[in-house]
Hints:
This protein is an alpha/beta fold. The chain has 2 domains: 1-79 and 157-216, Rossmann fold (3-Layer(aba) Sandwich), CATH 3.40.50.300; 87-155, no CATH class. 43% of the residues lie in helices and 23% in strands. It is built from 10 helices and 10 strands. α3 (95-106) packs across α4, α4 crosses α5 and α6 packs parallel to α7 (198-204).
Amino acid sequence: MIEVKNLTKRFEDKTVLDDISAVFETGKTNLIIGQSGSGKTVLMKNIVGLLEPTQGQILYDGRDFTAMTKKEKVMMRREMGMIFQGAALFDSLTVQENVQFPLDMFSNMTARERAKRAQECLERVNLLDARSKYPDEISGGMQKRVAIARAIVLNPKYLFCDEPNSGLDPKTSLVIDKLLSEITKDYQMTTIINTHDMNSVMGIGENIVFIYKGHKEWQGNKDQVISSTNKKLNDLVFASDLFRKVKKVEMQEEENA
Length: 257
């Protein structure tokens, strides 16, 4: 579990995040949503330590990340897995070498053990057959799955995903969402996903934090999104015809009940 307590982030005289408190639960897909410029990316960067909060606390299973020394934070990051908006793979390395890279850097495993672990993770994302290919020889969706395999290869307790469906078609996005949800439960990780994909919200949003102009506007799950009366949330989630129809049906069912 990750807890954010009264987190504020300022850049000079501009307040980007204002007194945000939220809980991100273990074994669930936790989503941060909001319009462009809302502060959701800044929030995630603060949580993982890429930015320092102006004030407030970030607790990893009760451990205060904001109070740690630089050395302690480096050790802490070994418990984190990251999936970037672009897959961020090394073009000169094969798929297996990309997945194995964190093991080569940070583990004490033998070469055989590292190769075996990398292959286990590739098998988990159904890409073992592609292990000898290079990133430019596989599709964008496959590259994202390689990034997922690399992110879990060190058995992280915490998984962070920045717009994992960016640039993917709807069908491939569903595959990525399903995979992230399954892995979260299989490994009992605390997964935080920064997304603007409303299909992800309604598909895997077990715990959703909605950021609006630097404030936490709403928190709930995908079922509560449907029945929410929060206008700002509705304006974001039900912007498409599909979700407007879902909302309309929900309201009609309530009236007929």
